[in-house]
Amino acid sequence: MKFLYKILIWTIITMATAFGVSGYYFVNYVFETALDRAVDQAVDDSNILRFALETAALNIPTKYNVLQDNAVQEIGANLERSGQGSGRLLRVSDENRNPLYAGEGFTDGRTLLKSITEDNVVWQVLKQGENYYIHTGIMANAMDRSLYLETMENVTQVFEERATGFSVYRKVTLVMFLCSSAILFFICTLLTNPIRLLTRATKRMAAGDYDYRAKQVSSDELGQLTQDFNRMANVLEDTIGELRDEVRAREDFIAAFAHELKTPLTAIIGYADLLRSRKLDEEKHFLSSNYIYTEGKRLENLSFRLLDIIVTKREQIEPQSVNADIFFQYLAEMFAGNTQQELKMAYDPGTVYAEEDLIKSVLSNLVDNAFKASGQGGIVEVSGQNTERGYAFQVKDFGVGIPEEELKKVTEAFYMVDKSRSRSKNGAGLGLALCVEILRLHGSELLIESTLGEGTCIRFELPGKQAVKGKRDHEDR
User: Fold this and answer.
1) C-alpha distances in angstroms, 282 versus 285, 294, 295?
2) Cα–Cα dist 171/14, whole Å
3) How far apart are CA 6 and CA 2, in angstroms?
4) pLDDT score recorded for residue 305
5) Cβ contacts of residue 130 below 8 Å, gap of 6+?
6) What is the CATH number of the domain that holds 395?
7) Which of 218, 230, 352, 402 has the greatest number of CB atoms lying within 10 Å of its CB?
8) In-domain check, residue 156
9) What's the average model confidence in pLDDT over 14-38?
10) Is residue 102 situated within a structural domain?
11) For residue 263, is it within any domain?
12) Do 120 and 50 touch, CB atoms closer than 8 A?
């Protein structure tokens, strides 16, 4: 059942219970008040009739000063006639509670008669046929005789008014329920409208429409809930976008990796088959073996670099103080055998707070990429300088450059701007991706500036000891 109908039904049930109970007590209160007035009136009338009976008895001539039964009957008849039109019935009984006079229609019941005592008016409400009466009883002293006077006052109208009150109340209540139900339905529809909008939004999002947002139609708690839901949807959409990008990147990574493996493996298998199936002269045998060796080394280098990236994503570093000149000496020794291109270095003395081997890997990758981008006789400049935050390295070449639309992609694993040139020089597109991961562990990043046909400048800055220490303390907390 919908929440709207639950609210509506329970509200109507509550209202029906409240109206029913309050209506019953209200109508019953009015009835009891009217009945109490009727009882008081009947008791007063009984006292008046007793006085009239006693007075009439004194005015009747008697023999031997004894009130005869026929005189009592005459007095009773006169008293009843005097009340014609009021619906009052009368009965007079003697000392032994035997009726001397009873009006037509007076009940034969003697329960009340037996309970009459001196100076005490007793009464009861009884039903006779379709009518209701107040039956009263009182003792009267007439010329030394103790007589019992009973009256029956018709109060059917009081009971009819109660029945009419309940009937009218039921009709009014029914009309009120119909009107209030319509009003409540309208109010509940307005109140639950934000919930319906949120439900619609969740269904749309569950169906894959992550751009859909719930419309805010109020500023209360439900409006705040709508705002929170939309904020959650924004975060969810961003997260899903990131996951999609990550999945796409992984798929591209796997595809590129498989492609990188396919080319050298095909060459290795082909040359190996040639060596085992044919007898080659010494020169061809050497060329085939050398090709197998170089492609095998390329696969080995590819696997090592891929392993380095995986390790840097999972492990933390232990930075130490290292003199900056160690890195430049390492580069000079590593690329000393390159006679086709020139490596120029200029740096300030300083201290670098980092893990030495990882930063050497970063610099060697950057310089190696710079040499590959430069033609024969090209120049690669490496510089280092102290900064306010720490120590900055810069590698600059004057080679082919990188197109502007490619700059954001060059740090992705296996991405290569010029795939044919990279493969011809045993490149696999893992160098910059590895550099990015290593620098991320050091709290730094690559800053790349490049102009197509003019060259590329790559810069990164390693923070000082205090900055790195502060970062690690924050991560530990």
Assistant:
1) 5, 18, 20
2) 18
3) 6
4) 58
5) 156
6) 3.30.565.10
7) 352
8) yes
9) 89
10) yes
11) no
12) no
> CA–CA distance from 234 to each of 196, 207, 237 (Å)?
20, 16, 5
Sheet with strand 145-154: strands edge to edge: 99-102, 88-93, 145-154, 131-142, 122-128
Are the CB atoms for 121 and 43 separated by under 8 Å?
A: yes
Averaged pLDDT of the chain: 80
Could you give phi then psi for residue 119, rounded to 5 degrees? 55, 35
Q: Which of 165, 197, 213 is the last residue of a domain?
A: 165
- Residue 153: CATH number of its domain: 3.30.450.20
Question: What's the pTM?
Answer: 0.46
Which one of 102, 133, 165 terminates a domain?
Answer: 165
Q: 125 near 104, Cβ under 8 Å?
A: no
Give residue-wise pLDDT tens across range 145-167. Answer: 889 999 998 899 999 999 998 89
**Lookup result for tokens 């197109």:** 403
**355 in any annotated domain:** yes
The two tokens of residue 413 are 């694993």
The answer, yes or no, to whether residue 393 has pLDDT greater than 90, is yes
Total number of domains in the chain: 2
Q: Residue 144: give the domain boundaries.
A: 3-165
Distance of CA 124 to the CA centre of its chain: 64
Own/partner contacts of 176-182, CB < 8 Å, gap of 24 or more, are: 176/19, 177/12, 177/15, 177/16, 177/19, 180/12, 180/15, 181/8, 181/12
